[in-house]
Amino acid sequence: MSVGLLAVVDDILAAALKASAKTAGVVIDDAAVTPQYVQGLAPARELPVVWRIALGSLFNKFVIIIPIALLLTAFAPWVLPWLLVLGGTYLCFEGAEKVIEWFGTHHEAESAAPSSEPKLVFGAIRTDLILSTEIMLIALASLDTDLGFWPTVGALALIGLGMTALVYGAVALLVKVDDIGLQMMKHPVRRTRRTGARIVRAMPAVFRVISIVGTVAMLWVGGHLVIANLAETFWRGPYDLLHAIEHAIEAAGPVVTWIVDTAISALAGFVLGIVVVGIVLGISRLRGRQHH
Fold first, then answer.
1. What is the per-residue pLDDT for 109?
2. Which residue has the higher pLDDT, 237 or 23?
3. What is the C-alpha separation between 49 and 43, in angstroms, rounded?
4. What's the farthest any 2 CA atoms get from each other in the chain?
5. Residue 104 — left, alpha, or beta (φ > 0 → left; ψ -120 to 50 → alpha)?
6. pLDDT tens digits along 76-92
7. Which of these, 285, 201, 284, 220, lies nearest to 258 by C-alpha position?
8. Among 175, 194, 172, 171, which residue's Cα sits nearest to residue 184?
9. What angle, 0 to 180 degrees and rounded to 10, lies between the N-to-C axes of helices 43-59 and 149-175?
10. Which of 54, 91, 144, 239 is the one with CA 20 to 30 A from 8?
11. For residues 51 and 172, what is the distance between their CA atoms, to the nearest angstrom?
12. Helices in 143-189 by DSSP H: which ranges?
């Protein structure tokens, strides 16, 4: 009995590790996006906010995504691509909105007052829901169909726990690096103090880079989600075009192919996001006129 149980556990671990490898790109995106939500907070609130977002991420995975994904896979698999198109479109909208803000365009209602902590947490958990959905669906699609129901649930649970710990552990470390630098500046050894000062000076630039990477990640993941899942629903045109471009440049090597794929997906995501931003702005202005 114990030997059989160990064999099942071994199968679950092997399946989880294999499926996790295919989600690495989205996990990196998730880790790049999240630190944006804790910028500007008091240092004492950074780790509590990261912890609340991590708990929200676990809720997303275990209460929403895994049960619904398993039910839809069993009874209505055709719904999943539509959900991913919607999720990808939202990511494109959020990414395009951030790009517009870089050029000084803001929503008037939002720029009047800074976002409260609950709103920041809610926004981060909402974005995590979309990224976690892709992570878990990629993982589910990567698992062997002969694995069985409960081993599949076990593998997904392991992936959900592991990815959440990896992403939010990295985020927690990242947002506290400046505090580590400040502590190093108080060290009696001069070299350590200088290193701490360099860390503190570098952190604003690091967070700017993270903000850019996170925004590009939103556009890339969102654009890729829309392109790939439109092909599963009713329109293969963008996917076939992307596949043709990849085939034309595949001789340049996998790195160049990946870069081009990412750039095209991000560009498509930005175009779609700008369209959605325009629609949202138009609706908000129309409502504003009606209120006057």
1. 42
2. 237
3. 10
4. 73
5. left
6. 888 888 888 888 898 89
7. 220
8. 194
9. 170
10. 54
11. 8
12. 149-175, 177-184
